[in-house]
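Kindly inspect this today.
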Amino acid sequence: MEIRNRRGLITGGSSGIGLALAQVPGSKGARVAISGRQTDRLHAAIASLRAAGVAAKAIVTDITTESGRDATVARALEALGGVKAVLEEAVRDHSAL
């Protein structure tokens, strides 16, 4: 499947699985937006992605509220010019896993 120039939003993308989820399609030419609450970690992740040639945008946001989720989607749509896929990796409470 060709994913070059496809656009995706990954929540919790500043580290771990979320960051890996951005790296894979990004390395194949997809444009990604990653979201997270911690500005410094998010910008470090963006720097890492861009250094690897990934077209990535940062969205500093908190998706624990409905308004935060709405704002995240709106900002991703604006930053990428549309979104084809949303991968939700952000987990607030890992105890249930």
Summary: The longest helix spans residues 66-80. The chain has one domain: 11-92. Residues 4 and 59 are 21 Å apart (CA to CA). The beta strands are 7-11, 31-36, 55-60, 85-88.
